Amino acid sequence: MRIGLLNGGGDCPGLNAVTHGVVGAAASLGWEVLGFRDGYEGLLSPGDYKLLRVEKTEGILKLGGTILGTSNRGHFAGKVGEGGVRRIPAELMDDAFQTLRKLDVSALICVGGDGSLTTALQFFEDGFPVVGVPKTIDNDLEATAMTFGFDSAVQVVTDSLDRLHTTAESHSRVMVLEVMGRHAGWIALYGGIAGGASAILIPEVPFSYEKVAESILEREKFGFRSSLVVVAEGAAPVDGGIVVEDSGGAGEVRLGGIGDVVAKRLAELTGKETRCTRLGHVQRGGSPTCLDRVLGMRFGVKAVKLIEEKRFGRMVSYKQYHVGSVPIADAVKSLKRVDPEGEIVVAAKSVGVCFGD
Ligand code: F6P
Predict the structure, then answer these.
(1) pTM for the full model?
(2) Going by C-beta distance under 8 Å and a sequence separation of 6 or more, which residues neighbour residue 264?
(3) In this structure, which CATH number among 3.90.1150.10, 3.40.50.450, 3.10.270.10, 3.40.30.10 belongs to the domain 2-149+288-332?
(4) What proportion of the chain, given as a percentage, has pLDDT over 90?
(5) Which of these ranges, 72-76, 158-162, 230-234, 315-319, has the smallest mean pLDDT?
(6) Domain ranges in the chain?
(7) 288: Cβ below 6 Å to ligand 1?
(8) Is 180 in the pocket of ligand 1 (CB under 6 A)?
(9) Ligand 1 center from residue 268 Cα (angstroms)
(10) Are 149 and 135 in contact (CB under 8 A)?
């Protein structure tokens, strides 16, 4: 038995832990694993792949990035623009199927986020046995409590806020930190709370600049001369739209730039010196946290188990500390976004965090 493995979408810490889990579990069943390079692109004929042996994947669990490479644009992008679904053309699907058949691959594990799993679903619907593994720092996939990579990104945000805090205090400044997350505010929310931000601006809660400025000036009355503001890249003011850096071409739009806009407006409204830091891809780099290492490894093992049980078209999922599975279709039908009335937002508000609403 020979199975295929690929990583799709933006990279994220924990991808190699999944590979470690897949290769180890497959080896225990006597199966071979072919790792396709650069996501679905590796399936284009004649196929770009390598045989993954246990000896070669020993020790990769703790490495950031992916030893397979990945791609979030290109021929097989499942999402375009602001999250629109894209059907992969039939000739590309045929080409990929031919490669898989020629290499004797009986089933494929697709490790990806919303876009790559949408493509995985098309592979399944078109007749190829596929299982999915939920990956993304954005944590925006439905039907799983958590994706791997999210915890590592939040840790980077938290560490950055800890650092910004000391310099903000020294200069009595407002520090704005722009973080990733696309159209969901999970990274901003968790990172902002953990790093002690006094304002957190997320896509799910349209904000008013005046309210954020007021909250900063209010803090001054209590003797806090500095403030940290976290803004998710997909956040937008009540009277404005999201800030887009690039239309995305063959993929999704590239967000970015709202941090600078927020910093400028807050400086005008508060009269305080304000600076913006855009964290960017630092959030996706480096080694995975302990949680993401363990989660990634468990997800990889579960994906092999699903193939052994012939439960195709399913995605590994994490619920109540348990690794199970759900139909891929359930995971990609809509984005999992922060509930503005939910317990976490309410808890943050009750300790004084401003969401600008
Ligand atoms: O989906 C993960 C993510 O890091 C988003 O948070 C971000 O908007 C996007 O990918 C950045 O993509 P790229 O690496 O193409 O700039």
Answers:
(1) 0.97
(2) 274
(3) 3.40.50.450
(4) 95
(5) 72-76
(6) 2-149+288-332, 155-285
(7) no
(8) yes
(9) 30
(10) yes
In this structure, the chain runs to a length of 357
- Strand, helix or coil for residue 232: strand
* Cα 57 to ligand 1 centroid, rounded to whole Å: 26
> What letter represents residue 201's amino acid?
L
Distances (CA, A) of 120 to 9, 77, 116, 117, 128: 12, 11, 6, 5, 9
Quick one: which of 352, 356, 345, 357 has its CA closest to 221? 352
Return the CATH number of the domain spanning residue range 155-285.
3.40.50.460
* Ligand 1 mutation target, pool 152, 231, 242, 254, most atoms within 8 A of CB: 254
Can you list the positions of beta strands (E) in 81-224? 84-85, 107-112, 130-134, 174-179, 199-201
Order of strands across the sheet that contains 174-179: 199-201, 227-232, 174-179, 274-278
**Residue 249, pLDDT above cutoff 80:** no
Residue (of 114, 135, 119) closest to 21 by Cα position = 135
Locate 253 and state its tokens. Answer: 């739009």
Mutation to probe ligand 1, out of 111, 180, 190 (largest number of atoms < 8 A from CB): 180
Q: Which residues are catalytic?
A: 138
Q: Is the CB of 73 under 6 A from ligand 1?
A: no
* CB 299 within 8 Å of CB 18: yes
Mean pLDDT over the full length of the chain: 96
Nearest ligand 1 atom to the CA of 182 is 8
Q: Please, are residues 355 and 202 in contact by the beta-carbon 8 Å criterion?
A: yes
